[in-house]
Amino acid sequence: MASALEDPVLERYFKGHKAAITSVDFSPSGKQLATASWDTFLMLWNCKPQARAFRFVGHKDVVTSVQFSPHGNLLASASRDRTVRLWIPDKRGKSSEFKAHTAPVRSVDFSADGQFLATASEDKSIKVWNMYRQRFLYSLYRHTHWVRCAKFSPDGRLIVSCSEDKTIKIWDTTNKQCVNNFSDSVGFANFVDFNPNGTCIASAGSDHTVKIWDIRVNKLLQHYQVHSGGVNCVSFHPSGHYLITASSDGTLKILDLLEGRLIYTLQGHTGPVFTVSFSKGGELFSSGGADAQVLLWRTNFDDLNCKDMIKRNLKRLHFDASPHLADIYPRTPHPHEGKIETIETTDTTTVRTLADKSEEISGYFLNPSLLSSECCPTSLKKKTEDVSDLPSESQRSIPLALTDALEHIMEQLNVLTQTVSILEQRLTLTEDKLKDCLENQQRLFNVIQHKS
Predict the structure, then answer these.
(1) Per residue, what are the HEC states of 180-213?
(2) How many CB atoms lie within 10 A of CB 356?
(3) Residues near 191 by Cβ (< 8 Å), separated by ≥ 6?
(4) What angle do CA 355, 361, 365 make, to 5 degrees?
(5) CA 19 from chain center: how many Å?
(6) How far is it, in rounded angstroms, from Cα 22 to Cα 38?
(7) Beta carbons of 115 and 133 less than 8 angstroms apart
(8) How far apart are CA 44 and CA 50, in angstroms?
(9) pLDDT in tens, the chain (452 residues)
(10) Which helix (H) or strand (E) holds 35?
(11) What is the DSSP string of 414-431?
């Protein structure tokens, strides 16, 4: 184990994608890394050197987001092809396709218990899906422009979303209402997420800023202007003490939230950095960008008491507990006094273990079969007798009969939603045609007026 106070180190890089990396996510165990790219592929990497990588094929356009389920048995991905896919993260790479959005999908996010999936789209909506039944549940409509990102709170009670309408909205998942709104007059947020104990949100701004908001008192707590380009992604360290940022200025930066200052600048990418993510334990983080490279870093700088902090945060996620109101900014002594503030990793001489150039890419599936009731893998198929991962009767707050009735209602709503989606598409086409007609009419009017 590395001692506290060491600098982050670039451990490996992965090469296999043919275009920019849009999203990275570690498996819950930290042994695998999933990546999404403009090349329309997902890739699954093993963090052990020399281990095989797998390429998953199915999306027909840029893959914008990827995430492991909390149990690690599923991968969700979003794409510009307007679909969301669920994958089995093994060498077969089978997937099922979800269609409800009418425009490119920008992000996917599992709830902490794995029961739900939230998706954000350029159709101005956020949609929530039931993962046990693999069905659409409901939509959230209040944004007036493309929604770039939507994330569940750690306890699943809230969803935060950001849009090109320059607002960040907080939604209550119980009553499906927008309960809070943060607006910005300068830029919009590219990415937003909750801190580990769910009391604050961080936003990555197109105006080069990073902001931390306390959602309990609706107050801007911290405002960082450390990048010279748009900030594309942020990731909280599991302790909640640190935030790592990825920017179009080509750098990653690590912020100490306890002291409110920049402590590291990491330069490993050539070109904009689009995504960054800590592993679930915080000992690793990964980044990807326009250079089509995926970099794997060892954190090193906060091994001290990290496990205790993670345990403390997990205790706050009991789903029946009242919200935890402990301040995340305790004024305690901090181990970074007198440290060098930046680390620059610009060449490969600092890399400890390089990936083998002949790293095998296997599992290239040209026709991934969709999951049907007949061929659905057991890890996804929910048979009547298979209730091992469903809440026990003692944990249910709704009687089974009522649940079945609600499921039937949801099926009907699903049909209605699909119908509404088709109507939305037709309405959009009608609006476009009407706009063309009005423009032509205006041109004719101008010509007639000019002649007269």
Answers:
(1) EEEECCCCCEEEEEECCCCCEEEEEECCCCEEEE
(2) 11
(3) 148, 149, 162, 203, 204, 231, 232, 233, 234
(4) 155
(5) 19
(6) 7
(7) no
(8) 14
(9) 434 458 899 999 999 999 999 999 999 999 999 999 999 999 999 988 777 889 999 999 999 999 999 999 999 999 999 999 999 998 888 889 999 899 999 999 999 999 999 999 999 999 999 998 889 999 999 999 999 999 999 999 999 999 999 999 999 999 999 999 988 768 899 999 999 999 999 999 999 999 999 999 989 999 999 999 999 999 999 999 999 999 999 999 999 999 999 999 999 999 999 999 999 999 999 999 999 999 999 998 765 455 555 555 554 444 444 333 333 333 333 444 444 333 333 333 333 333 333 333 333 223 333 333 333 333 333 333 333 333 333 343 455 667 667 767 877 776 777 777 677 777 877 877 888 888 888 888 888 888 87
(10) strand 32-37
(11) HHHHHHHHHHHHHHHHHH
First to last CA, the chain: 86
Cβ–Cβ contacts within 10 Å for residue 120, how many?
31
Quick check: helix, strand or coil at residue 432? helix
3-state secondary structure of 339: coil
CA distances from 352 to 269, 282, 356, 437 (A): 16, 19, 13, 63
